Structure formats: structure tokens, C-alpha cells
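Appendix C: a fully annotated inverse folding record. The material below is reproduced so that readers can follow the format used throughout the book. The structure is listed first as C-alpha cells, followed by the designed sequence.
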């Protein structure tokens, strides 16, 4: 297991070293060179007396001694459903359907879906602890909204460092959970709180470093909260204000903004006129205390590159797991753009991915806002780039793991607290907690359509021939990209084509041989590889049937080598490829730990 004390020691000697692993990012690639001073990038100073008390932590999601888990929603909230005439509920999507299958009786928070991270974190605290929401006098005065909100009984009134919670967040909810721990560690609520009140923070697709999606939707880069008047974002804000203006619509969508901002009509005690609602002119839109700022790259940087008091340092007693979703897009060799794969199961995010995968900002914006090339943010999971999901550069990383099966999911094992476990996920079905459900798949009429035999057979046919369809898909996309490049060259250079490179069209062999190079190659770092090897060894020892199978295959391997003229290494890959030497859990797993001798003795009886 990677030693946390080594991280502390190494970062005290070299405060600019921001990562344990060099497989994924390096200090010279850090997009914030102007801020990488002596303090920036350093871990918090930990009392040496605490180092001896560090121990591995095991998360328990079931049973009488299970951990108290709180699910923190993102921008879309917990679920999307509509009330039909007669009181029936029409469920469009449940964002926690996968987690609720694993976690027993979790508490599900209900936060302002479009509020700022600060406001959402405060609401989350009072929903867990209980009491009337108090956003803070200074904060409320600065952003001109009401200081107090709803009153909650509390999920866990006896919440304390001795009775901590596990926070599980998706997307915007993950950064909300982290900010809540920051407020607890700084005693923001004035009740002698501590970061140890959170046992673990589990993040999925968290915008740690911000997203470029708000800029594509219409947020003016460098302004933090100014929205272009002719943009999709302005249209969405107008929709939100109109919903809040009419009480009937507010009950239907429940953005939970009226308590703070008084966005209802003046006849109902609010501050909006119908014109201000249509044009989205309000303190909520103008003062920057909303999701637009904290979701952007600039807002994310303010949380870890600003003043020391605003930085969130990881707690040495808390476990941090960061799931980074990848593998949903491929890179074109013609333009370098990223396109969604045919295996993408969520149509709305696939459309957004197409635009994010080629969204390029001006050089001035890249220098002063992104502080890196736009192409850094092109690889994405539909709404968020892979780069954005990297933890802030001043927070330590235990190891990087490319998860290929559930056996290696850290959440199911004992973990060392104090730094991040970065888990790169290409297929969510390999994780313990999360599974990728297609959008709208929970609708009754969609379920009925999927049950039709013809639709089933067509789906099976597509899944069996997905490689062939992907080849033609890639061929067509790159074909049109070549044509666009050709036309641009003609336009800029007249009839000359001297500057056009690689005009010849790709063959099938070229596409198929280079298919792997279209996705970013990631592998476990040294610490992650050692950890996976350890987990695999433990699994092997705990499964007698697997151990015997493994030993039998080793004997076959050596007998084959001894009987032939080839060496051992020439057979190693063949045996692994054919499954003769297992790499993961196989057969049954013993309920109790047994040695191979115990297993043989039990068989002979």
C-alpha cells in the first residue's frame, strides 16, 4: 500500500510537486504556472504525532454497522419527474437509481440545483445536522440575497467527528460535498465543526478544474457572470426566471431559488415583473452567486488558486475517491477533434460532446482564462472534459488506477486516507456504485419499445457488429474533415494545394490498425500497479478454486515449455490472452478464508 507519510515528506521538501504519478500530468504541464509559488501545490502541514495514528479505512454500505451515506445531487437534481392528472408520477430519470441498489438506506439531499457551491454546501449542512439554513451575514450582504432559508429536522442531528458521514456526489454535487468539508474544517458554522465529520468523499465526474461548457453556452470569458444576450444560456436563464415567476411552474420544476432571491411575481410578494422575468434581469443572474461562476474554469480556480483561507486542503482522516469517466469519445487524426463513439448510450450528452470536442477559444482567452490550450479540454464524457475531472493541483494523489473490473474498484477495499485515489473509468459497469443508464430508459413507453422482439434483435445485431459500424463512422467523419481542410486550403492559398498534408483517403487497414491510438492510452502508475497486484493476490488466496486453477495453468505452461524449444516468455502472453492465467476473480469465492491445503482436505473427506 502506498504510504501517505511519503507524500507528506516529499511535498514538504518540494512544494511544487503536485502529483505522485507522472503518467497523467506533470508540473511543467500545469496550466497555472503564474500561481505555482511556494505555497501553491503544497499539502497542509500535518502534525507528526498524527502520522503514527493513520490507518486504512473500509467503507461499509450495508449491514447494521454501515456508514451513514448522503447522496449529493448535481445540476439536474435527484430525479426528473412530472405529476400527471390523477396524481400519477411520470419518472423521466432517477440519477441515484444505480447507487441505491448498492447503498442501504442512504439519505438523499435536496439542494438548490442552480445555486452556488457555497449556498448548496450550507443547505447540505443543515439538511444533515438540522436547523434553519443560515447562508452567513457577510455572504448574504455581499451577494444581496436573504440570509436565512428553510428549516430542516436533519438526517443526522448527532453528526460529529465521532459519527461521520460518507458523501457521494455526482458532477456538481461532488464539488459541493468537497466545499462542505472545507466549511467544516474552517469552523464556518461556529459549532466547533471539523473536517473529520466526513469519513469519505466519493466523486463521479466532478468539475474540480471547471468546465468549458458554460462558455460554449454563452458565458462571457473573463467576466465570471456576464451572459451573452443571444445565447442558449440566456434562453435558459429566461426560462428559469419565468418558472420562478409563476407559482404553479415553480412547484412543478422546483429550482428552490425564491427563498433567497424573491424571484416570484410582485403580486405574490416577490421582486420580479413579467419583463424582468423574460429578460432574466435579477440579482441572481447579475451578482455571480450561482452555478455559472462555480461551474466555469474561472470559478473553479478561485477555490484553489486564490487566498490561502479559501483553499480546500484534504483532511488526513478522510478517504477521497475520484472517478474520472473516459472512453466515450475518440480523437480524429485529421483535425485532432474528439467525437462521440457509437457505443454512447446517452443521446443528449452525445450531442453536447460533439460541440465540446472541438470548441476552440481565442488565444487571448486561452492565455488569461484557460491558461492552457483549448484542446486540453476536448476529450470529454458528454458534459465535462477529462482534464476538468483531475483533482486541484495543490491536493495530493495516492495513486492512479485504470479500472477494468469491479475487483479493482477502491471503494470495495481498505483505503489510506488523506489523498486522492484517481480511478479512470471507461465503462461504468466495472464500478461498484455507478452504472451508466441510458437517458429516458426508465419511461414506461421506452421500456415497452425495448421489449419488442424486433427492437431486441436489432440491438443485438448492432452490438455484435459495432466494430464494423465504428469503422464506417470514423471513415465518414474523417472523410468530411479532409474535404473541409481541402476547401480551407484552397480558399487561403488560391488553387495551390502545396500546403495540404495527408490528402489521401484512409484504407480500412489503416483505420483498424490505428484505432487504439484514437483514444488516450492510460495505465496504472507504479503505486496503482502495486495496489492492483496486492488486491489480485488477496483474491487469489481467498478463492481455493481459483488458486487450483491458477496452479494447474502454471503447470501446463511449464510442461509446454519443457516439451518444446520455445522459452517461457513466448507463451506468457498467449496463456494470458486465452484466459489460462486469470487476471481477476473467477469461479466461486470462499465465504471464509481457506488455504489450498484446507480446500484439498475438505474435498478428500
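Designed amino acids, in order:
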Amino acid at each position: 500500500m502506498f504510504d501517505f507519510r511519503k507524500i507528506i515528506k516529499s511535498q514538504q521538501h518540494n512544494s511544487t510537486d503536485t502529483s505522485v504519478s507522472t503518467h497523467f500530468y506533470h508540473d511543467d504541464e500545469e496550466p497555472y504556472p503564474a500561481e505555482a509559488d511556494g505555497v501553491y501545490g503544497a499539502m497542509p502541514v500535518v502534525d507528526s504525532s498524527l502520522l503514527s495514528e493513520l490507518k486504512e479505512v473500509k467503507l461499509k454500505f450495508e449491514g447494521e454497522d454501515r456508514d451513514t451515506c448522503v447522496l449529493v445531487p448535481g445540476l439536474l437534481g435527484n430525479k426528473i419527474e412530472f405529476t400527471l392528472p390523477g396524481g400519477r408520477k411520470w419518472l423521466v430519470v432517477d440519477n441515484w437509481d444505480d447507487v441505491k441498489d448498492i447503498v442501504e438506506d442512504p439519505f438523499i439531499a435536496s439542494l438548490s440545483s442552480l445555486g452556488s457551491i457555497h449556498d448548496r454546501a450550507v443547505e447540505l449542512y443543515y439538511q444533515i445536522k438540522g436547523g434553519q439554513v443560515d447562508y452567513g451575514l457577510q455572504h448574504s450582504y455581499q451577494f444581496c440575497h436573504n440570509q436565512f432559508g428553510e428549516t430542516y429536522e436533519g438526517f443526522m442531528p448527532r453528526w460529529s467527528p465521532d459519527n461521520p458521514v460518507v458523501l457521494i456526489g455526482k458532477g456538481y454535487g461532488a464539488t459541493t460535498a468537497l466545499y462542505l468539508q472545507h466549511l467544516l474544517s474552517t469552523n464556518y458554522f461556529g459549532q466547533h465543526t471539523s473536517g473529520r465529520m466526513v469519513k469519505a468523499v466519493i466523486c463521479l465526474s466532478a468539475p474540480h478544474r471547471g468546465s468549458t461548457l458554460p462558455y460554449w453556452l454563452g458565458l462571457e470569458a473573463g467576466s465570471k457572470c456576464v451572459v451573452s444576450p443571444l445565447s442558449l444560456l440566456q434562453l435558459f436563464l429566461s426560462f428559469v426566471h419565468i418558472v420562478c415567476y409563476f407559482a404553479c411552474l415553480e412547484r412543478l420544476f422546483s429550482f428552490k431559488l425564491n427563498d433567497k432571491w424573491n424571484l416570484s411575481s410582485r403580486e405574490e410578494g416577490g421582486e420580479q415583473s413579467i419583463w424582468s422575468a423574460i429578460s432574466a434581469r435579477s440579482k441572481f443572474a447579475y451578482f455571480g452567486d450561482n452555478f455559472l461562476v462555480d461551474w466555469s474554469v474561472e470559478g473553479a480556480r478561485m477555490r484553489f488558486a486564490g487566498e490561502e483561507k479559501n483553499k480546500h486542503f484534504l483532511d488526513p482522516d478522510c478517504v477521497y475517491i475520484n472517478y474520472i469517466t473516459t472512453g466515450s469519445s475518440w480523437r480524429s487524426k485529421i483535425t485532432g477533434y474528439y467525437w462521440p463513439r457509437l457505443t454512447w448510450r446517452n443521446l443528449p450528452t452525445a450531442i453536447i460532446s460533439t460541440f465540446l470536442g472541438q470548441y476552440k477559444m481565442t488565444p487571448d482567452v486561452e492565455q488569461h482564462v484557460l491558461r492552457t490550450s483549448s484542446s486540453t479540454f476536448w476529450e470529454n464524457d458528454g458534459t465535462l472534459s477529462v482534464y476538468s475531472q483531475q483533482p486541484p493541483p495543490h491536493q495530493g494523489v495516492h495513486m492512479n488506477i485504470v479500472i477494468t473490473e469491479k475487483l479493482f474498484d477502491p471503494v470495495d477495499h481498505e483505503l489510506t486516507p488523506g489523498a486522492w485515489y484517481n480511478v479512470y473509468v471507461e465503462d461504468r459497469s466495472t464500478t461498484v456504485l455507478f452504472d451508466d443508464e441510458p437517458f429516458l430508459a426508465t419511461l414506461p413507453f421506452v421500456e415497452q419499445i425495448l421489449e419488442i422482439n424486433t427492437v431486441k434483435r436489432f440491438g443485438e445485431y448492432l452490438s455484435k457488429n459495432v466494430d464494423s459500424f465504428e469503422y464506417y463512422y470514423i471513415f465518414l467523419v474523417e472523410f468530411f474533415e479532409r474535404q473541409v481542410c481541402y476547401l480551407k486550403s484552397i480558399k487561403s492559398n488560391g488553387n495551390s494545394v502545396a500546403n495540404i498534408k495527408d490528402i489521401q483517403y484512409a484504407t480500412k487497414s489503416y483505420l483498424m490498425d490505428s484505432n487504439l491510438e484514437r483514444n488516450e492510452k492510460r495505465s496504472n502508475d507504479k503505486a496503482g500497479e502495486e495496489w492492483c497486484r496486492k488486491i489480485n493476490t488477496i483474491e487469489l488466496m481467498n478463492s481455493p478454486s481459483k488458486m487450483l486453477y491458477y496452479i494447474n495453468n502454471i503447470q501446463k505452461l511449464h510442461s509446454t515449455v519443457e516439451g518444446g524449444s520455445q522459452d517461457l516468455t513466448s507463451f506468457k502472453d498467449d496463456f494470458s490472452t486465452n484466459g489460462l492465467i486469470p487476471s481477476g476473480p473467477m469461479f466461486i469465492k470462499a465465504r471464509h478464508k481457506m488455504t489450498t491445503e484446507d480446500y484439498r482436505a475438505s474435498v478428500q473427506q
